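Notes, Module 5: Reading structure tokens.

Key idea: the token line is not a picture. It is a compressed description, and you learn to read it the same way you learned to read a sequence, by spotting repeated patterns. We will look at two proteins. The first is printed below with its tokens.
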Amino acid sequence: MKELIGGPGTVCGFILRVAQCVCAAASIGVMVSAFGFSNYTAFCYLIASMGLQVLWSFGLACLDVYSLRIKRDLYNPVLVSLFVVGDWRPVEGETCNSLFHFHERVGLEKAHKPPNR
């Protein structure tokens, strides 16, 4: 397979995984610090999804370190397919949860709005 910048088992890939893990952890911190976050089910699911993202990114960062230490590439087609599906799945879940949270919030705002006279 052709070696790509930021691919699995490269220094750039390791840096990107660490950045992904840090951003997911920071977003969890921001969401948890919001007042009343536990009142919204979709918000709680989004936090859980981001927690899984942190674990996935950290695990792949550790795999990158291992690959760099033993100087072996990770360009196995089956392994790369696993990375693609593993990276794609949390993004889909986070997007669906965000949209659900938006619709839940808009529905609450409409419910509390006084009728026009």
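Here is the second protein, with the sequence above and the tokens below, as before.
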Amino acid sequence: MGIQDKAEDVAGTVRDAADDATDQAKDVADDAARKARHVAEDAGDAVRDTAGRVSDRVQDAVDDVQDGHGVVNRLHKLGVRSEWAYAGAFASIGLSLASWVISRNKTGDDKSQSDRWGIFIGHWAPTFMGLGLALKQEEKR
């Protein structure tokens, strides 16, 4: 057997080894792609399940609010009326003004304390107004 025959034999062996390596690489790549698709499908299923649970909880919360399970609804069921909240707002404004008028004649720390009380009482007016609006909506249901 000559050198050329040996070279052809070696070349054939190398080609066969290369073909085998290529086939093995394709098999590994196919397995990896199959596993990746499987993992992606599992992740997609998990995301859909989680999204469904979150959606159900949000819908339950919306239903609770629409059915009147909130604080304002409970106040309404207890008989608190929007007019009472509006009266509380105007009383807060009046008491704040009265506190300010009284504090004008005071001096020193007494004046500061009266001013602070006036501000404190005045801050309740928007709260009562907001509560009155919420109760008015509840009354319209």
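Summary for the second protein:
- The chain has a mean pLDDT of 85.
- The radius of gyration is 40 Å.
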